[in-house]
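Comment thread on ticket #2218

A.B. wrote:
> Attaching the input chain for the structure job we discussed in standup.
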Amino acid sequence: MKDWNPDSYARFRDVRLRPALDLLAQIPTLPERGKVVDLGCGSGAVAEALSTRFPKRKLVGVDQSEAMLQKAASTGAYRRLDQDDISRWEPNKPPALIFSNAALQWVPNHAALLPRLAGALRPGGVLAVQMPAQQRAPSHRILRELAQEMFPDRFDFTGWEPPVAATVDYAQILRKLGRYDLWTSEYLHQLPIAEDGHPVRLFTQSTAMRPYLTQLSDTEQAAFIRRYETALQTVYPVQADGSVLLPFRRLFLVLQREA
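C.D. wrote:
> Ran it. Output below, let me know if you need it in another format.
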């Protein structure tokens, strides 16, 4: 896949940052020693908040995208930035906190991933994760339906399962690993109308749409976007004040290993 576009992702920075701050507010006291890892750090949107909350901790960012890491470096908040596949990443020393905001939904097999990350923590360490759980909502469902209809040679969602499971499934995983807190929140994003496209399309283009667009030619992308925008206008109409309302569900988990 082509590299991420930090500027496109940052277009809705405040909307994307709020869940990270909500997750950060629920992190309990960390062990006395150990670094903080921003796993899937992207452009470093959460770097300042993590540095403010844990000013004496070494902050390390990990991401696979070179473009995102370059943007993250400009924050000046990270002691180190590592380019790595977060699905295979392992720390060189056990951290006090692994913080992952809107990244692990791209990684399969959470039943194996979460125990591995929890096992990498030092005693008393914390794993804090936020993931979009929006895959069955119209904003994401329409993408799958259109892709399979328009390009059946490249997209087949037979037997598809969402990458983020039900909360009860995560409870079964986490209960064996330590003390945990697990919840979901649905945010109602009020997106401003834009001249360059439907706000929901602009919101998803840098994230949920990427796996589709990267497999299409420029001409195919244009046709796909046109069909998507037409469908979005019905499901997410423009309100009287000129905004578009996007309900967006997210899953949160905070796990603390026994000290």
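A.B. wrote:
> Thanks. Noting for the ticket: The longest strand covers residues 179-192.
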